[in-house]
Amino acid sequence: MLKNFLLAIILVLSTFQLVQAQKNKPIDKAATRQTKALYKNLQKLSKKHTLFGHQHATEYGHGWMGEPDRSDVKSVSGSHPAVVGVDFSGFSGRPPAVIQTAKERVRKTVVDTYNRGGVITAAWHFSNPVSPGGFNWVDTVSKPAVRYIIPGGEAHAQYKEILRGIGEWAHTIKGADGKLVPIIFRPYHEFDGGWFWWGKPHASREEFISLWRFTVSYLRDSLQVHNFIYAFSPDNKFRTETQYLERYPGDEWVDMVGVDNYGDMGRNRFAPDTAALKLKVVSDYAQKAGKLAAFTETGLESIPDSTWWTNMLLKTMKTYPLQLTYVLVWRNDMRSPTHFYAPFPGQVSVPNFLKFYRDPYTLFEKDLKNIYRRKFLGIF
């Protein structure tokens, strides 16, 4: 009897130790050395700092496109953002020559950012693979593609081909040091809304989880992509951990938990307390589960509030003792006079943004040092 009891205790302890050992590291046991180092160093930095990110920061900006070593953030602050967002939107649903051009363009952005010491995150505005309508849901036009492309679906083979294209590309992104560049890959974001074809009204919980797990498994295990960190990021339609995890595929399938929140940050209302509570849900779960956490998308279009950076964004992130690896604001359109989320020279929020830039809590590219090395030397 005592022997059986002791064996049961040993089994419980062994299971607990196994679970603990799997925390605080990438879900890919074969992840590259640089990917593991990035994961660990982001976790360390998040205890006291948050990296600032900007989508498409160096590809184009307010009134310009394709200029070497330029970003609107750098023009204002003297440094590129610490995190540069790219998109795999051009990797499918277009003629082969156009796809190849898109892959080359994104590859250059990724490699240049890595060579400078910055961090890369990739969104995927995935054009509907089984119907017209693009990545948005268009009534009477779009099909609920998730059920078609998961295992057993009639377009599953087509989806595997699309993933194969991403996997082949991932094997080609090498820095000046010859190493594969790590990428924080954030597919199927804002899945709790209805505006994308993979959104909640267009796929069951089980279908979405199947899609997520297959995507990770096929890239990691079948295509041997070992330089991706997988980020899970719903929109802001939750208040509790239970609501947040409604479509969560499981800890063994996610490296980073995040949230996209524009609505509470000025798009629909200025609600820093509400936004902070949602970030706390994300950060608390990350710490409990041994994951990274991030404010994966936010911003205020046109930034008409001249103090938004400190009175809204910084205030929100500092309300609780959060551990957020990065915060990313959306893109600056090159043609639109109003569609921008980061300041440029002369924009009304520049003075306040510089206060945000100088705050010890925020990190920009110039602040990073050896983030892809295990022997992390901290920040400048």
UniProtKB/TrEMBL annotation:
It comes from the Bacteria. Residues 1-21 form the signal peptide. GO terms for cellular component: extracellular region. GO terms for biological process: substituted mannan metabolic process. The keyword Electron transport does not apply. Its EC number is 3.2.1.78. It holds the Pfam family Glyco_hydro_26. Gene3D superfamilies: Glycosidases (3.20.20.80). Substrate binds at H125, W195, Y262. The keyword Hydrolase applies. Residues 33-366 form the GH26 domain. It is found in: Secreted. The record marks H189 as: Plays an important role in maintaining the position of the catalytic nucleophile. Its main location: secreted. It catalyses: Random hydrolysis of (1->4)-beta-D-mannosidic linkages in mannans, galactomannans and glucomannans. The active site is at E190 (proton donor), E297 (nucleophile). Coiled coil: none annotated. InterPro entries: GH (IPR017853), GH26_dom (IPR022790), Glyco_hydro_26 (IPR000805), MANB/E (IPR016714). Keywords: Carbohydrate metabolism, Glycosidase, Hydrolase, Secreted, Signal. GO terms for molecular function: mannan endo-1,4-beta-mannosidase activity. PANTHER family: GH26 DOMAIN-CONTAINING PROTEIN-RELATED, MANNAN ENDO-1,4-BETA-MANNOSIDASE E-RELATED. Belongs to the glycosyl hydrolase 26 family. This is Mannan endo-1,4-beta-mannosidase. It comes from Adhaeribacter arboris. The lineage of its organism: Bacteria, Pseudomonadati, Bacteroidota, Cytophagia, Cytophagales.
